[in-house]
Structures are given as structure tokens and as C-alpha cells.
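User: quick one, fold this
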Amino acid sequence: MRRLFLAGLMAAVFAAPAFGQVVKDGYVLAGAKLREALFGIEMSGYSPTFGFSWRECIQPNGETMYYTPDGVMHGRLTISGTGQACFAYEDDGYRTPACYTTKQTEKGLRFEGEFDSLFITTKVVKGVKTCSPDDLIG
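Assistant:
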């Protein structure tokens, strides 16, 4: 019986990386899972760090349209070599990407960045082909 328990425990430990790193508040997305979760979506949410609601549309090629209370910006999403989602925007010529560890939670996506910055989705729509200001979810 003990061997069966240990075998099950070991199987769970070794299978975890295939699904992402399990953490208290969701699991960390990486590689193909991160790309699948972020490219070709529309999402909306809020940032408790900065105290505002936001919306972002991400085309399958990584081009984005980002709405905040300050206005709209075009951007680009890339996946870093360390498995983070990196967003760069036109306001600084795409020179300074903000990179986030991305977690899948029961309620959606959670983006955790430098200096304890946090963005949490409240709605995610998959299957987006193009981003147009008129088409963004509210």
C-alpha cells in the first residue's frame, strides 16, 4: 500500500511540469501553454497595484491594443526566454517591455510583474483574429 502511495505521489510530482508550476494562487503558464492562453484573445480586468480597470486585445501575431483610463495604445506581446509574457508599447517606441509571470487561476489570468505590479483578468474571450477599437469587449 505504501509503494502504491509513493508511486502516485511521484507520478503527480513529475507530471506537474507538463501542466505548469503549481502555486498557491494558480499555476504558472510557460511555453506553448502561455502562447495558447495569450495570443488571439481579448481580456479585461483590473490592477489593484495601479487602481484602474483595463482592456487588451491580442492578435494571433502578438500585436495588441491596450485600453486604460489614460487612453489607448498599440503594443506587442512576446514571450521571453525565461517564459514571461512581455508587453511593449508605442509610447516609448516599444523599447521598454514590461514582463510578467502569468498564472492561470480558477477565475482567469493573473499577471505578476516587477515591483509587485499585478493585473488580474475578469473576462477573457478566445478566438480573436484582429483587434479593432470598435470590437473590444466592455
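User: anything notable?
Assistant: Confidence is low (pLDDT under 50) at residues 1-22.
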